[in-house]
Amino acid sequence: MNSRLQHLLERWSDDRFTEAERRELIDMLQSASTEQEIIPALEDMWEKIQDEGLFSEAQQQTMIKNILDRYPGREFPVDKETGKGMHVAHRNSFIRKWSWAVASSVALIIGVGTYYLYHKAETPIGVVQSITNGQQGESSVLLTLSDGSQVLLDTVKNGRITLQGGTVAKVTNGVFEYERTGSEVQYNTVSTPKGKQFQLRLSDGTSVWLNAESSIKYPVVFTGKERLISVTGEVYMEVAQNPSIPFRVAVSGGTSVEVLGTSFNVNAYNNEQSVRTTLLDGAIRVAMKGAAYKLLKPGQQALTTTVNRPVQVFDDVNAVSVVAWKNGVFDFNDVPLEEAMRQLARWYDIEVIYQQTIPKIQLGGTIKRSLPFTDVLYFLSSVGLHYKLEGNRTLIILP
Q1: Nearest to 352 by CA among 398, 395, 385, 388
Q2: What is the rounded CA–CA span in Å between residue 254 and residue 277?
Q3: Could you tell me where the DSSP H helices lie in the chain?
Q4: d(CA 261, CA 281)
Q5: Which of 20, 232, 348, 383 is least surrounded by Cβ atoms within 10 Å, i.e. has the fewest?
Q6: Higher-confidence residue: 291 or 133?
Q7: HSE toward the beta carbon, residue 264, CA cutoff 13 A
Q8: Phi/psi of residue 50, each to 5°?
């Protein structure tokens, strides 16, 4: 068993193992009959975590804290001179004494496919009800043409599509772009359902990433004195520079963005309290109808709420976290539970119902958006969340 366990841990650490191997590893860690069966493999795993930098020291300490939280009454070794907890590297022998706790935590890490998870509030971890697996939405990414006809872009793997007015588009490795455009002014709309994201390239070379339940409406070819598009949901854009023809974005709810050659993210879902526009590079001007524009610098985020309200600008925003979705990741660091659940609802096509008040839980950590819903629920249960699943689509948060 030990050699098989070692093999599976190595496969996991190199991110090469299959879903079947992942399940086997979790079962093995949770059902080992003696400590002697798991200690050697876990010792090697812990050393690899340290030697190869799989986790930062802060993440390692958080992992160890989670282990000890599961086993009350244990304490970290303390340096007698400084009075502080000892460095992670000096705690190995201590951690090995509690190999079952290590096994439990490694199973948690592997189970959610992420670095770590911690809960800032002092909510005890409890037992949750068994649930069945939710599924991601099965709807398609739609291209809607000016005449109302639609193309299911999901069905086009790699190839050309002949559209209206002599326009020819193609899909290459999942990216939709225009190869030839006609002279007639036409507007196309690309929209994503829950559970899917999509990338396209406009005729001027601007790259667009659409998050789940989002859309972009744009002219097939830009004419006139400006490049004007409109978006809903969440969109990340890298705008092709052309100073002679300004690029402007009309956002649902009355927000407008004037782009000065840049990359930025707009979050404008209807069930969010405000529109958040985050600048990664270059410069943009953001305004709400009836209010003055605000110029943003990289790392700043603009919040717009209602008509005639001034734009709020926040500095030092973690832009990498904001656009983590584009790279297939949920970044839940410092994210309230309610906000996280809205993200999960859009991606896994579920309805979230709170039986009583919304729990005041602040999350931390990251998880892959490719995970099955059952693993995401494992993530949530480890912060003390109680829930039940009705059917495959309704998640009820219990007190």
Answers
A1: 395
A2: 13
A3: 2-13, 19-31, 35-51, 57-70, 92-97, 99-112, 319-322, 337-348, 373-381
A4: 8
A5: 20
A6: 291
A7: 29
A8: -75, -50
Angular region, 20: left φ>0, alpha ψ -120 to 50, beta rest: alpha
pLDDT band at residue 210 using 50, 70 and 90 as cut-offs: very high
286 pairs with which residues across the strands?
Answer: 257, 294
Query: What pLDDT was estimated at residue 203?
Result: 92
The residue ranking higher by pLDDT, 177 or 66, is: 177
Residue corresponding to tokens 């998640």: 395
How many CB atoms lie under 10 A from the CB of residue 219? Answer: 19
pLDDT digits (tens, 9 = 90+) for 93-118: 544 444 445 554 554 444 443 322 33
Q: What letter does residue 141 receive in the DSSP assignment?
A: -
Cα distances (Å, whole numbers) of residue 298 to 6, 35, 248, 260, 310: 45, 52, 18, 12, 20
- b/e map of 29-60 (b: 16 or more CB within 10 Å)? beebeeeebbbebbbebbeebeeeeebeeebb
Q: Are strands 247-251 and 227-238 parallel, antiparallel or unpaired?
A: parallel
pLDDT at 122 (0 to 100): 30
Taking only the tens place, the pLDDT of each residue in 345-381 is 999 999 999 998 888 888 888 888 988 888 888 778 8
Using CA atoms, how far apart are residues 19 and 101, in angstroms rounded to an integer?
24
Phi, psi of 231, deg, nearest 5: -135, 155
Alpha-carbon Rg for the chain, nearest whole angstrom, is 24
The Cα–Cα gap between 369 and 362 comes to 19
pLDDT over 70, % of the chain? 67
